[in-house]
Amino acid sequence: MDSVEYLDLLLKALLLAGVYAAMAVGMTVIYGVMKIVNLAHAGFLMLGAYFALEMFQRFHVDPILGSIIALPVFFLFGMAVHWLLVRWLPKSDTPTLASLLLMFGFWLVLQNIAYLVWGNEDQSILTPLTLSSVQFGQISIPKVNLVVFAAAVFCMVVLQIVFHRSWFGRSMRALIQNPYAAQIVGVDDQKTARLTFGLGTAFAGFAGGLLGMLFSFSPDFGRPFLLRSFVIIVLGGLESVSGVALGAVLLAILETFGINVPLPVYWHGWSFHYLPPSYQQVIPFALLVVVLLILPKGLSSLFSRKWKAA
Amino acid sequence: MNGTLAFIGQNIRRASILALGLGAGLTLCTGSRAVAADDTIKIGVVLPTTGSESKPGQYQKEGIELAIKQINDAGGISVKGKKLKIEEVFYDDGTDSKKSASLTERAMSSDGVVAVLGGYSTALGTAESVMADRYKTPWITTGAGATAIFGKGYQYAFGSLSPVALIGTTSAEFLGSLMDQGKLKKGLKVAMVVENTDHGTDYVQGFTEWSNKHAGYFQIVLNEKFELGATDFSGILQKVKNSHADIFLSDAHLPDYITMHRQYLQNGLHHQMVSYGARGPEANARQALGAGTDYIFAGIWWSNKLPYPQAKKFATDYKAFTGHDVDSWYAAPAYDGMRIVAQAIEAAGSLDKNAIRDALKKAQLKESVLPGQVLKFAANGQAEYPFVITQNKPDNKVDIVYPKDAATGEPVAPAPAK
């Protein structure tokens, strides 16, 4: 491989990181504040994709604009889900079995509603942007991936601003750091949790709309993303938004380079071998095990700056 | 204390009476089901109508149900001088191989079916296949074409799909014929990227065997596998790009075909010829990728372009039955799979599973809608009939381009760059 091919790989990895970050960020904020592993996240991603599709087919709204419209819609939807279901869960500093079962069950309900409404066909959103790419010499960059990357960066920046410049963000950070102390000093934990769940759901809906431009989708959409999202937030540190970006970049680079760059292997002498692409799925899970053993608080704990909660 | 014990004892007695009553009720219900079973023949159908393979599964279900309707409308199956109607017992496995196996087991062991059809795709069919000999019940897969299933000496397993390896062989023959005609140059570099299932392995085996026997036609420069149902193919497509191949051959299921080809196009890739094995002309893919699917060729088990009158009639009946066109191959092997089971039951003259199995081994379905017009099973239980090669053309058109005697249009080779 020459330098252009390495650069091509690096760009592909960064764009893939954008996809991963977009899908994981909503799950992270919910975990950070509420200690809920939101298994229904995949269902929210799926609904976001169908929302963008409906907006596109019925009202001829561009899927990017449709995804932006999904933000307030899914924010309200998330708050409603919290009010109806999540607020009844027992409070805990760690994820509880009850929360896992509730969110898993809710995901199945969302899936089956989607089967009833849209059927089981694979759906796709085809716009002039979908298949077009930008050419830089020998390197071709898909425009949709650039949009998703920009959207992921946008989400991160918005979250950073919310965390540092708003009352809501300060409440979230307080609850992440010490929920009991936060309540003693007057933070309304229920209100903050409701808004956080709404925010996480809004980001999931937004990401779902954008992912619908990259992949075909059915009511089962989101399952593989859920596993990767989980790996990314563990990598990044379960409560760190900046860590999500770091985790997404690391995972994407390892996945992309792992199957394209020969690795040294010792077997009756040194030789170089590619990791077969069918073993690409091994990378995130191997990484998960290693990080949980060596850095249980995630990659961000390596840095002296307090990145927790942004 | 004594009062409490008496209360518990009383409740145990009540529970026992209730359980006995429930048991008697269930026995009566089973008895009435057995009476109903005298008038019908129960056929189990295990297919995915939810999950990632729901679309092909739905098409196969429709094919089977059309055959059942036609058989029942004609009076049913004649067994010992009595016409019996077919009763379908349907199970949705949700594209889950464990569920697929357990539902097949349930159908064979407790739901009183005389045969089970289903098993789309190879992964699900492989899981189901072990049940056939265990419960000595004929099992006919209508959607699993991997030879490995039929290489285990099973006596009750049959398949209405020709071996997947033949797709690879026929694809190689087709490309070789284009080289012989001068449309493509000999010695082109081929990149092969297939799913990591028996389906993918068989495809590569079929192609490489032909290539090895016919030196000078192809130079295979990449042979890789990918995870079934993967979400990102950018890494493996980068390998394809770096291989500088002239021909890109994949073997993928429908969702992977759509996702991979979308990323193929987004990455600006182009090859002289492109194929995704048995996938290519599906309406969903063409709707999802538009003109991006033009000129893809596929080796398929059936095409609505086949010139046989029975194939045309099947397409018309299917549309009248389902309300939509038969736009892919999935329904036809399922339709004929059901028809050959019905023929075998009639030939067996009984609902004995061993007799049906023996009749299936000898069965020959004349006027089959499949290529070659005859469906029969080889000694290993797998059907063997020729494939047709189709090529997508602009404006959602599809032509059979190989073999020549079934061709409805000329192959376009090399595929024009966009």
How would you explain this protein's 3D organization?
The complex is a heterodimer of chains A (310) and B (418). By secondary structure, chain A is mainly α. Chain A has one domain. Chain A has 11 helices and 4 strands, in the order ααααββααααααββα. In chain A, the strands form 2 sheets. Chain A has a two-stranded antiparallel ribbon. Chain A has a two-stranded antiparallel sheet with strand order 3-4. The longest helix of chain A has 32 residues, at 3-34. Chain B starts with a helix and ends in a 16-residue tail after the last strand. Helix content of chain B is 45%, strand content 19%. In chain B, α8 (254-266) packs parallel to α9. Chain B is α/β, with parallel strands linked by helices and 418 residues long. Chain B has helices at 2-39, 54-73, 97-109, 122-134, 165-180, 198-213, 234-242, 254-266, 283-289, 309-322, 331-348, 353-362, and strands spanning 40-47, 77-79, 82-92, 115-118, 139-141, 157-159, 188-195, 218-226, 247-251, 273-275, 297-300, 364-366, 374-376, 388-393, 397-402. The A-B interface holds A 1, 5, 8-9, 12, 15-16, 19, 115, 120-122, 124, 126, 130-133, 135, 140, 142, 144-145, 214-216, 218-220, 224-225, 228, 255-256, 258-260, 276-278, 280-281 and B 49-52, 54-55, 58, 95, 193, 196, 224-227, 229-232, 234-236, 238-239, 241-242, 254-255, 258-259, 262-263, 265-268, 284, 287-290, 292.
List the helices and strands and how they pair.
The complex is a heterodimer of chains A (310) and B (418).
Chain A: H1 3-34, H2 41-59, H3 63-84, H4 97-118, E1 133-136, E2 139-142, H5 143-165, H6 167-177, H7 179-184, H8 189-214, H9 223-236, H10 241-258, E3 263-266, E4 270-273, H11 282-294
Antiparallel strand pairs in A: 1-2, 3-4
Chain B: H1 2-39, E1 40-47, H2 54-73, E2 77-79, E3 82-92, H3 97-109, E4 115-118, H4 122-134, E5 139-141, E6 157-159, H5 165-180, E7 188-195, H6 198-213, E8 218-226, H7 234-242, E9 247-251, H8 254-266, E10 273-275, H9 283-289, E11 297-300, H10 309-322, H11 331-348, H12 353-362, E12 364-366, E13 374-376, E14 388-393, E15 397-402
Parallel strand pairs in B: 1-3, 1-4, 4-5, 5-6, 7-8, 7-9, 9-10
Antiparallel strand pairs in B: 2-3, 11-14, 12-13, 14-15
Helix pairs in contact in B: 2-11, 3-4, 5-6, 8-9, 11-12
